[in-house]
Structures are given as structure tokens and as C-alpha cells.
Amino acid sequence: LACHIFLSLPFEAKRRVVFSGLKNRIVMGKFLKSGKAVIVLSGRYAGRKAVIVKNHDDGTGDRQYGHALVAGISRYPLKVTRRMGKKRSNKRSKIKPFVKVYNYNHLMPTRYSVDMSFDKQVVNKDIFRDPALKKKAIRDVKSNFEDKYKLGKNKWFFQKLRF
Predict the structure, then answer these.
(1) Spatial CB neighbours of 37, under 8 Å, sequence gap ≥ 6
(2) What is the pLDDT of residues 58-100, one digit of tens each?
(3) Which residues contact 131 (CB under 8 A, 6 or more apart)?
(4) Are the C-beta atoms of 69 and 125 separated by less than 8 Å?
(5) Which residues contact 146 (CB under 8 A, 6 or more apart)?
(6) pTM for the full model?
(7) 63, 88, 132, 159: which could join 84 in a potential S-S bond, CB 3.0 to 4.6 Å?
(8) CA-wise closest residue to 48 among 58, 36, 62, 38
């Protein structure tokens, strides 16, 4: 029976089969890594896009489940046309970010990766202890997001999810 299951697996899964004594199990590859674009599924920011800053697959002392620190977009930039002046287009290009820790069950990974480089000293799990640190982290995330948006990279990430 185990041999039959093994033969019916796709080629990539066959490479990851681990034989441990009598039990056979398939080892999943880790795909929720930092830089991966995800969609938040529940809570205040449901339907919003975010990027993983730091992942904890096996959990930690205070959260004994797989979770990730994510930085996402709470309010997306508005459409800018060629007719608009510089002042109006700058105002419409503003992004409101959020930083939050989410259980893996409440995140849906996408095929996209966003090459964001957040300062690990500023954006980490310690920011939730002090409101001043959280404001500083959100300011850092906001500047990163707006820079990427103005460069025109990852256009899908900066558009509102439509469904």
C-alpha cells in the first residue's frame, strides 16, 4: 500500500519522502518565508495584502503554533492619472500600513514574492510592548511601501483585492 501511494505521487513529492522505520510520511517544503506576499483571511484586515517580515514555523514560547510577523496595507493608494497635478498625485499615492502577528491559519499565501527590506531592529515582535516603537515601525514600513509603489514594482501588491 505504501509503495502504491509513493508511485502515485508527483515527481517533486517523491524527492521529499522520508522513510522513518515502518512509517512513511511526506515532508512538506517550507514556503511561508520572509518576503512572501500573503492575503489576510480574518480579523480587521481581512482581504488585505501583506508581506511576511519574519516567520516562526514551529512556534515560540508565548505562541505555540506556526505564526508570522506581517506588514500589510490597510488603505491602498488611489488611482493616479496623467492629468493630475503633482500635489494631488502625491496625496493619492499615500499608503496606510499595518504590522501584526498572524497565525498561519489566517494567512493565504500567494505565488508572489515582494522584495522588501525591512530593518529588523525596527520591525520585530518587540514593537507590540511599546506604542512608541510600534509607531516607529509603522513609519518605517510606510516609507518602504511608498518607495516601492513609486518605483512601479510589484503593481499587483499595491492594488485593492477585487472579488
Answers:
(1) 49, 50, 51, 109, 110, 112, 113, 114, 154, 157
(2) 877 888 888 999 999 999 999 999 999 999 999 999 999 999 9
(3) none
(4) yes
(5) 93, 94, 95
(6) 0.77
(7) 88
(8) 38
C-alpha cell at 9: 505521487
- The residue written with cell numbers 492619472 in the block is 81
pLDDT digits (tens, 9 = 90+) for 8-44: 555 555 455 555 555 566 656 677 788 899 999 999 9
Maximum Cα–Cα distance across the chain: 70
Say if strands 49-56 and 36-40 run parallel, antiparallel, or are unpaired. Answer: antiparallel
Task: Give CA separation, 71 vs 13, 15, 55, in Å.
Answer: 31, 34, 12
Write out the three cell numbers for 10: 508527483
Cell of residue 1, nine digits: 500500500
Residue with cell 516607529: 136
Q: Would you give the DSSP letter of residue 34?
A: T
How confident is the model over 122-156, as pLDDT tens digits? 888 888 899 999 999 999 999 999 999 999 888 89
Contacts of residue 95, Cβ cutoff 8 Å, sequence gap at least 6: 73, 75, 76, 77, 142, 145, 146, 149, 158
CA gap 43, 45 in Å, rounded: 6
